[in-house]
Specification:
2 strands; ICMT_MeTrfase; elongated; transmembrane helix; two-stranded antiparallel ribbon
Amino acid sequence: MAAPSLGEAIWVIGIVAWYVIRYPFERRARRVRIVTGYRSRSDIVGLASALFGLAILPAFYVVTGMPAAADHPASAWAVALGTIIFCSALWVFRRSHKELGRNWSITLEIRERHELICAGPYALVRHPMYTSFLLMGLAQVFLLANWIAGISGLIGFAVLFLLRVDKEERMMLENFGPQYRAYMEKTKRIVPYLY
């Protein structure tokens, strides 16, 4: 199998795995009562941007090959690196969901008996779910040999992150106060030890 086709196949498998990981948590989350919702227009725009950049546009490229004018030569080393990064993203994504358990929500919400989670990947960063999206976007650059489809994941992630992370941290400060502030002092946002 040629490098471009292999990269595309690995990207498709990764997206399917992403959904398989998320689905049971989505089902469980529906059963837990929401105490406070912080959904806003910018939240919806951020989620839509991430979905478009990390799934819709690259899927369109994989299915149609368009825009072919933005294709570039694929290489085996890029596909191998992209595969490692995507596997890392899925591991962080799964661990984040597992640690959050009943506290998980796709939008900014506080659930009944919500707890502050500081274990697992949350011991290193405050937002490991965003870390996983950053890694997915980076993997996409290496797996898809197309400048537009490849970079769209990083752009979609950036829009989501910039529109949401400050609001999410304010929500957590409102609900957990000094406990969350102390947690913020011990951890970085999405990249351990750096940012």
